[in-house]
Amino acid sequence: MRLWIPSFLILSATVATQAFADSPGGAGGQAPSAHSGAEIYRHVCQACHMADGKGGTGSATVPALYANQHLASLPWTLVTVLNGRGGMPWFNGQLTPDEITSVVNYVRTNFGNQYRDKATPELVKQMAGPVQVDDH
Predict the structure, then answer these.
(1) Structural domain tally of the chain?
(2) 0.70 exceeded by pTM
């Protein structure tokens, strides 16, 4: 099955990687592996989910992360970030396991969420499976 991802989402992920490269300690075009969840959210997620995590509507509906009960399930949250959901792209292979861990833990403890069980890089690696490849 072929997955269509709007070009603005791909551009958002590309810009995020470039922004990381320009950050202190950036890896010259390659996303560094140690950024806070807040930084990753700002560079990767905020363009769609908004600075306040409340999502939005317009040409598409972007779900709110603010007080989102779906986030209570750590596995659901990791699967969503790793594999995408609806119009959201996957981040398996786009972000490192450490970065996914950081941003998932950040979102689940901010924006009105207080879910305290933590993702770990090891759990992310176990759940990740093969990296998805866009074949077009």
Answers:
(1) 1
(2) yes
